[in-house]
Amino acid sequence: MIRHFRSRFVAVVTGIAIFISIASIGMAGDTVKIGVAGAHSGDLASYGLPTVNAIKLVVNKVNAEGGINGKQIELLIEDDVCKPEVAASTATKLVAEGVQVVLGHICSGATKAALPIYKNAGILVMSPSATNPELTESGEYPNFFRTIAPDDAQARLDVDFAINILKLKKIAVIHDKGDYGKGFAEFAKKFIEESGKGEVVLFEGVTPGAVDYSAIVQKIKQSGAEAIMFGGYHPEASKIVGMIRKKRLSIPFISDDGVKDTTFIKVAGKDAEGVYASGPRDTTKNPLSQKAVEAHKKAFSSDPGAFYENAYSAALALVNAIKKAETINLGTLKKALQTEKVDTPVGIISFDKKGDAIGVGFSIYQVQQGQFVEVQ
Question: pTM for the full model?
Protein backbone atom coordinates (compact mmCIF):
# COMPACT_ATOMS: atom_id res chain seq x y z
CA MET A 1 0.00 0.00 0.00
CA ILE A 2 2.82 2.38 0.81
CA ARG A 3 4.42 1.69 -2.56
CA HIS A 4 1.06 2.20 -4.30
CA PHE A 5 0.47 5.50 -2.50
CA ARG A 6 3.98 6.68 -3.32
CA SER A 7 3.46 5.89 -7.01
CA ARG A 8 0.18 7.80 -7.05
CA PHE A 9 1.81 10.72 -5.24
CA VAL A 10 4.67 10.86 -7.72
CA ALA A 11 2.23 10.71 -10.62
CA VAL A 12 0.17 13.56 -9.19
CA VAL A 13 3.25 15.70 -8.55
CA THR A 14 4.55 14.98 -12.06
CA GLY A 15 1.18 15.88 -13.52
CA ILE A 16 1.11 19.15 -11.58
CA ALA A 17 4.65 19.98 -12.74
CA ILE A 18 3.72 19.39 -16.38
CA PHE A 19 0.53 21.43 -15.94
CA ILE A 20 2.52 24.31 -14.46
CA SER A 21 5.04 24.09 -17.34
CA ILE A 22 2.26 24.15 -19.93
CA ALA A 23 0.41 26.95 -18.17
CA SER A 24 3.56 29.06 -18.04
CA ILE A 25 4.26 28.76 -21.76
CA GLY A 26 3.80 32.23 -23.16
CA MET A 27 5.78 35.40 -23.57
CA ALA A 28 5.66 36.10 -19.82
CA GLY A 29 9.01 36.54 -18.09
CA ASP A 30 12.04 38.73 -18.66
CA THR A 31 13.67 36.54 -21.34
CA VAL A 32 12.86 34.09 -24.10
CA LYS A 33 14.43 30.79 -22.99
CA ILE A 34 15.81 28.61 -25.78
CA GLY A 35 17.20 25.20 -24.89
CA VAL A 36 20.17 23.78 -26.79
CA ALA A 37 20.53 20.02 -26.41
CA GLY A 38 22.97 17.64 -28.04
CA ALA A 39 26.30 15.86 -27.80
CA HIS A 40 28.70 18.41 -26.33
CA SER A 41 31.22 15.89 -25.04
CA GLY A 42 32.35 12.37 -25.91
CA ASP A 43 32.98 10.75 -29.30
CA LEU A 44 30.10 12.56 -31.03
CA ALA A 45 30.76 16.06 -29.69
CA SER A 46 31.85 17.12 -33.18
CA TYR A 47 28.21 16.78 -34.22
CA GLY A 48 26.75 18.79 -31.33
CA LEU A 49 29.20 21.63 -30.61
CA PRO A 50 28.73 23.33 -34.02
CA THR A 51 25.03 23.74 -33.12
CA VAL A 52 25.96 25.47 -29.86
CA ASN A 53 28.25 27.84 -31.74
CA ALA A 54 25.62 28.51 -34.40
CA ILE A 55 22.88 29.52 -32.01
CA LYS A 56 25.27 31.59 -29.91
CA LEU A 57 26.13 33.65 -32.99
CA VAL A 58 22.49 34.07 -34.01
CA VAL A 59 21.38 34.96 -30.48
CA ASN A 60 24.20 37.44 -29.92
CA LYS A 61 23.14 39.26 -33.09
CA VAL A 62 19.43 39.18 -32.23
CA ASN A 63 20.02 40.36 -28.66
CA ALA A 64 22.29 43.18 -29.86
CA GLU A 65 19.44 44.33 -32.12
CA GLY A 66 16.92 44.42 -29.28
CA GLY A 67 15.95 40.77 -28.87
CA ILE A 68 12.64 39.19 -29.82
CA ASN A 69 9.80 41.67 -29.45
CA GLY A 70 11.81 43.53 -26.85
CA LYS A 71 12.90 40.48 -24.86
CA GLN A 72 16.45 39.17 -24.71
CA ILE A 73 17.10 35.51 -25.54
CA GLU A 74 18.55 33.32 -22.81
CA LEU A 75 20.25 30.06 -23.80
CA LEU A 76 20.00 26.95 -21.63
CA ILE A 77 22.65 24.52 -22.91
CA GLU A 78 22.61 20.85 -21.93
CA ASP A 79 24.78 17.89 -22.98
CA ASP A 80 23.04 14.59 -23.80
CA VAL A 81 26.16 12.80 -25.17
CA CYS A 82 23.86 11.50 -27.97
CA LYS A 83 22.58 8.81 -25.58
CA PRO A 84 18.79 8.25 -25.28
CA GLU A 85 18.80 7.71 -21.51
CA VAL A 86 20.76 10.93 -20.95
CA ALA A 87 18.60 12.83 -23.45
CA ALA A 88 15.45 12.03 -21.45
CA SER A 89 17.04 13.46 -18.30
CA THR A 90 18.28 16.47 -20.25
CA ALA A 91 14.77 17.16 -21.58
CA THR A 92 13.27 16.85 -18.09
CA LYS A 93 15.83 19.32 -16.74
CA LEU A 94 15.22 21.84 -19.52
CA VAL A 95 11.44 21.68 -18.99
CA ALA A 96 11.92 22.19 -15.24
CA GLU A 97 14.10 25.24 -15.96
CA GLY A 98 11.30 26.82 -17.98
CA VAL A 99 12.68 26.37 -21.48
CA GLN A 100 10.23 27.63 -24.14
CA VAL A 101 11.62 26.16 -27.39
CA VAL A 102 14.49 23.75 -28.02
CA LEU A 103 17.18 23.60 -30.69
CA GLY A 104 18.24 19.95 -30.77
CA HIS A 105 18.67 17.14 -30.13
CA ILE A 106 21.41 15.97 -32.50
CA CYS A 107 21.19 12.16 -32.78
CA SER A 108 17.94 10.48 -33.79
CA GLY A 109 17.86 8.05 -30.87
CA ALA A 110 18.41 10.81 -28.33
CA THR A 111 15.82 13.00 -30.05
CA LYS A 112 13.24 10.20 -29.98
CA ALA A 113 13.81 9.65 -26.25
CA ALA A 114 13.43 13.34 -25.41
CA LEU A 115 10.47 14.27 -27.62
CA PRO A 116 7.64 12.81 -25.47
CA ILE A 117 8.79 14.94 -22.53
CA TYR A 118 8.73 18.13 -24.60
CA LYS A 119 5.43 17.08 -26.17
CA ASN A 120 3.78 16.73 -22.76
CA ALA A 121 5.01 20.22 -21.90
CA GLY A 122 3.82 21.73 -25.19
CA ILE A 123 7.36 22.71 -26.24
CA LEU A 124 8.45 22.99 -29.87
CA VAL A 125 11.67 21.21 -30.81
CA MET A 126 13.75 21.76 -33.95
CA SER A 127 16.72 19.54 -34.83
CA PRO A 128 19.43 20.36 -37.36
CA SER A 129 20.48 16.73 -37.76
CA ALA A 130 18.02 14.08 -36.49
CA THR A 131 17.15 12.32 -39.75
CA ASN A 132 15.11 9.26 -38.69
CA PRO A 133 11.94 9.36 -40.86
CA GLU A 134 9.62 8.17 -38.08
CA LEU A 135 10.19 11.38 -36.15
CA THR A 136 7.91 13.15 -38.63
CA GLU A 137 6.19 10.30 -40.50
CA SER A 138 4.66 8.62 -37.44
CA GLY A 139 2.65 11.65 -36.37
CA GLU A 140 3.58 10.95 -32.74
CA TYR A 141 5.54 14.17 -32.34
CA PRO A 142 3.54 17.16 -33.61
CA ASN A 143 5.99 19.39 -31.72
CA PHE A 144 8.99 18.29 -33.83
CA PHE A 145 10.59 20.10 -36.78
CA ARG A 146 13.96 19.70 -38.53
CA THR A 147 16.15 21.55 -41.01
CA ILE A 148 17.60 18.43 -42.60
CA ALA A 149 16.05 15.90 -44.98
CA PRO A 150 15.13 12.43 -43.58
CA ASP A 151 17.11 9.21 -43.95
CA ASP A 152 14.98 7.74 -46.70
CA ALA A 153 16.03 10.66 -48.93
CA GLN A 154 19.74 10.08 -48.41
CA ALA A 155 19.41 6.29 -48.54
CA ARG A 156 17.74 6.58 -51.95
CA LEU A 157 20.46 8.98 -53.13
CA ASP A 158 23.23 6.64 -51.92
CA VAL A 159 21.62 3.61 -53.55
CA ASP A 160 21.03 5.41 -56.86
CA PHE A 161 24.65 6.55 -56.82
CA ALA A 162 25.98 3.06 -56.09
CA ILE A 163 23.84 1.27 -58.67
CA ASN A 164 23.44 3.81 -61.47
CA ILE A 165 26.69 5.79 -61.27
CA LEU A 166 29.22 3.32 -59.84
CA LYS A 167 27.42 0.41 -61.58
CA LEU A 168 27.60 -1.83 -58.50
CA LYS A 169 25.32 -4.85 -58.10
CA LYS A 170 26.31 -6.81 -54.98
CA ILE A 171 26.19 -4.63 -51.86
CA ALA A 172 26.80 -5.44 -48.18
CA VAL A 173 24.63 -3.23 -45.96
CA ILE A 174 25.99 -2.77 -42.42
CA HIS A 175 24.65 -0.68 -39.54
CA ASP A 176 25.30 0.18 -35.88
CA LYS A 177 21.92 -1.12 -34.58
CA GLY A 178 20.80 2.38 -33.53
CA ASP A 179 17.66 4.29 -34.54
CA TYR A 180 19.65 6.35 -37.00
CA GLY A 181 22.08 3.82 -38.47
CA LYS A 182 19.70 0.88 -38.65
CA GLY A 183 16.94 3.08 -40.05
CA PHE A 184 19.20 4.29 -42.84
CA ALA A 185 20.37 0.73 -43.56
CA GLU A 186 16.83 -0.64 -43.75
CA PHE A 187 15.89 2.00 -46.31
CA ALA A 188 19.07 1.28 -48.27
CA LYS A 189 18.25 -2.45 -48.31
CA LYS A 190 14.70 -1.71 -49.44
CA PHE A 191 15.79 0.58 -52.27
CA ILE A 192 18.49 -1.82 -53.48
CA GLU A 193 15.99 -4.68 -53.67
CA GLU A 194 13.35 -2.52 -55.34
CA SER A 195 15.81 -1.29 -57.98
CA GLY A 196 15.84 -4.61 -59.78
CA LYS A 197 19.52 -4.00 -60.52
CA GLY A 198 21.18 -4.68 -57.18
CA GLU A 199 21.41 -7.42 -54.56
CA VAL A 200 21.94 -7.18 -50.80
CA VAL A 201 24.48 -9.94 -50.17
CA LEU A 202 24.83 -9.19 -46.45
CA PHE A 203 22.68 -7.24 -43.98
CA GLU A 204 24.05 -7.11 -40.45
CA GLY A 205 24.51 -4.90 -37.41
CA VAL A 206 27.74 -4.26 -35.54
CA THR A 207 28.28 -3.37 -31.90
CA PRO A 208 29.08 0.32 -31.37
CA GLY A 209 32.34 0.93 -29.54
CA ALA A 210 33.84 -2.48 -30.34
CA VAL A 211 37.62 -2.59 -30.60
CA ASP A 212 37.83 -5.12 -33.41
CA TYR A 213 35.61 -5.32 -36.50
CA SER A 214 37.60 -8.01 -38.29
CA ALA A 215 34.70 -10.51 -38.06
CA ILE A 216 32.27 -8.33 -40.02
CA VAL A 217 34.96 -7.46 -42.58
CA GLN A 218 35.59 -11.18 -43.08
CA LYS A 219 31.85 -11.73 -43.64
CA ILE A 220 31.80 -8.91 -46.17
CA LYS A 221 34.74 -10.47 -47.99
CA GLN A 222 33.08 -13.89 -48.06
CA SER A 223 29.78 -12.41 -49.31
CA GLY A 224 31.35 -11.34 -52.58
CA ALA A 225 30.19 -7.76 -52.04
CA GLU A 226 31.29 -5.17 -54.58
CA ALA A 227 30.63 -2.34 -52.10
CA ILE A 228 29.77 -1.63 -48.48
CA MET A 229 26.93 0.67 -47.46
CA PHE A 230 27.13 1.67 -43.79
CA GLY A 231 24.52 3.26 -41.55
CA GLY A 232 25.94 4.87 -38.44
CA TYR A 233 28.48 7.34 -37.08
CA HIS A 234 32.15 8.09 -37.66
CA PRO A 235 33.73 6.21 -34.69
CA GLU A 236 32.58 2.82 -36.02
CA ALA A 237 32.99 3.79 -39.68
CA SER A 238 36.63 4.79 -39.17
CA LYS A 239 37.44 1.45 -37.51
CA ILE A 240 35.65 -0.59 -40.18
CA VAL A 241 37.36 1.33 -42.98
CA GLY A 242 40.72 0.80 -41.28
CA MET A 243 40.08 -2.93 -41.05
CA ILE A 244 38.96 -3.06 -44.70
CA ARG A 245 42.24 -1.44 -45.79
CA LYS A 246 44.21 -3.78 -43.51
CA LYS A 247 42.52 -6.81 -45.09
CA ARG A 248 43.23 -5.31 -48.53
CA LEU A 249 39.57 -5.40 -49.49
CA SER A 250 39.46 -2.85 -52.32
CA ILE A 251 35.75 -2.05 -52.62
CA PRO A 252 33.90 1.28 -52.23
CA PHE A 253 32.67 2.30 -48.77
CA ILE A 254 29.49 4.40 -48.97
CA SER A 255 27.87 5.94 -45.91
CA ASP A 256 25.55 8.60 -44.52
CA ASP A 257 25.78 12.07 -42.98
CA GLY A 258 26.84 10.47 -39.69
CA VAL A 259 30.19 9.88 -41.41
CA LYS A 260 30.32 13.06 -43.50
CA ASP A 261 32.29 14.90 -40.82
CA THR A 262 35.89 16.09 -40.77
CA THR A 263 36.38 14.12 -37.55
CA PHE A 264 36.00 10.92 -39.57
CA ILE A 265 38.91 12.00 -41.77
CA LYS A 266 41.02 12.94 -38.76
CA VAL A 267 40.38 9.60 -37.03
CA ALA A 268 40.58 7.36 -40.12
CA GLY A 269 43.60 9.20 -41.54
CA LYS A 270 44.81 7.98 -44.93
CA ASP A 271 42.27 5.12 -44.78
CA ALA A 272 39.50 7.70 -45.29
CA GLU A 273 40.70 8.48 -48.81
CA GLY A 274 38.10 7.51 -51.40
CA VAL A 275 35.23 6.99 -48.93
CA TYR A 276 31.81 8.22 -50.06
CA ALA A 277 29.25 9.78 -47.74
CA SER A 278 26.00 11.62 -48.24
CA GLY A 279 25.47 14.90 -46.43
CA PRO A 280 23.53 18.16 -46.59
CA ARG A 281 23.87 19.89 -49.96
CA ASP A 282 26.88 22.11 -50.48
CA THR A 283 25.93 25.65 -49.48
CA THR A 284 29.28 27.38 -50.04
CA LYS A 285 27.87 29.56 -52.85
CA ASN A 286 25.02 30.83 -50.69
CA PRO A 287 25.89 34.36 -49.44
CA LEU A 288 24.20 33.71 -46.08
CA SER A 289 26.22 30.53 -45.66
CA GLN A 290 29.40 32.43 -46.45
CA LYS A 291 28.53 35.07 -43.85
CA ALA A 292 27.69 32.43 -41.25
CA VAL A 293 30.97 30.60 -41.86
CA GLU A 294 32.97 33.83 -41.66
CA ALA A 295 31.20 34.72 -38.42
CA HIS A 296 32.22 31.37 -36.96
CA LYS A 297 35.84 31.82 -38.03
CA LYS A 298 35.93 35.29 -36.51
CA ALA A 299 34.32 34.26 -33.22
CA PHE A 300 35.91 30.84 -32.68
CA SER A 301 39.06 30.95 -34.87
CA SER A 302 38.10 27.73 -36.62
CA ASP A 303 36.01 26.34 -39.43
CA PRO A 304 32.50 25.26 -38.41
CA GLY A 305 31.78 21.55 -38.13
CA ALA A 306 28.98 19.16 -39.04
CA PHE A 307 25.42 20.49 -39.34
CA TYR A 308 26.52 24.05 -38.55
CA GLU A 309 24.57 25.60 -41.43
CA ASN A 310 21.51 23.48 -40.58
CA ALA A 311 21.70 24.63 -36.95
CA TYR A 312 22.22 28.26 -37.92
CA SER A 313 19.17 27.96 -40.20
CA ALA A 314 17.12 26.35 -37.44
CA ALA A 315 18.02 29.17 -35.08
CA LEU A 316 16.92 31.77 -37.65
CA ALA A 317 13.66 29.89 -38.27
CA LEU A 318 12.89 29.65 -34.55
CA VAL A 319 13.59 33.32 -33.92
CA ASN A 320 11.50 34.36 -36.91
CA ALA A 321 8.58 32.15 -35.83
CA ILE A 322 8.58 33.56 -32.28
CA LYS A 323 8.69 37.11 -33.63
CA LYS A 324 5.80 36.49 -36.02
CA ALA A 325 3.71 34.52 -33.53
CA GLU A 326 4.39 36.92 -30.65
CA THR A 327 4.03 33.88 -28.41
CA ILE A 328 5.66 30.51 -27.88
CA ASN A 329 2.33 28.68 -27.90
CA LEU A 330 2.98 25.45 -29.81
CA GLY A 331 0.05 25.73 -32.24
CA THR A 332 0.79 29.34 -33.12
CA LEU A 333 4.51 28.66 -33.58
CA LYS A 334 3.77 25.70 -35.85
CA LYS A 335 1.54 27.85 -38.03
CA ALA A 336 4.26 30.48 -38.32
CA LEU A 337 6.87 27.87 -39.29
CA GLN A 338 4.56 26.32 -41.90
CA THR A 339 3.53 29.60 -43.51
CA GLU A 340 6.60 31.82 -43.22
CA LYS A 341 9.55 31.40 -45.59
CA VAL A 342 12.95 32.17 -44.09
CA ASP A 343 16.16 32.96 -45.96
CA THR A 344 18.89 30.85 -44.35
CA PRO A 345 22.38 29.45 -45.01
CA VAL A 346 20.76 26.26 -46.40
CA GLY A 347 18.43 28.24 -48.68
CA ILE A 348 14.96 29.70 -48.47
CA ILE A 349 13.02 27.26 -46.33
CA SER A 350 9.62 26.66 -44.77
CA PHE A 351 8.13 23.54 -43.21
CA ASP A 352 5.45 21.08 -44.24
CA LYS A 353 2.64 19.84 -41.99
CA LYS A 354 4.81 16.96 -40.77
CA GLY A 355 7.65 19.25 -39.66
CA ASP A 356 10.11 18.50 -42.46
CA ALA A 357 11.92 21.44 -44.05
CA ILE A 358 10.94 22.28 -47.61
CA GLY A 359 13.94 23.23 -49.74
CA VAL A 360 16.69 21.05 -48.22
CA GLY A 361 18.32 17.88 -49.49
CA PHE A 362 21.46 15.75 -49.71
CA SER A 363 24.50 15.40 -51.96
CA ILE A 364 27.14 12.69 -52.34
CA TYR A 365 30.68 13.54 -51.21
CA GLN A 366 33.99 11.70 -51.50
CA VAL A 367 37.15 12.08 -49.46
CA GLN A 368 39.74 13.42 -51.90
CA GLN A 369 43.17 14.52 -50.69
CA GLY A 370 41.98 14.69 -47.10
CA GLN A 371 38.70 16.55 -47.53
CA PHE A 372 35.11 15.88 -48.52
CA VAL A 373 34.38 16.98 -52.10
CA GLU A 374 30.87 17.02 -53.57
CA VAL A 375 30.63 14.57 -56.47
CA GLN A 376 26.85 14.48 -57.08
Answer: 0.88
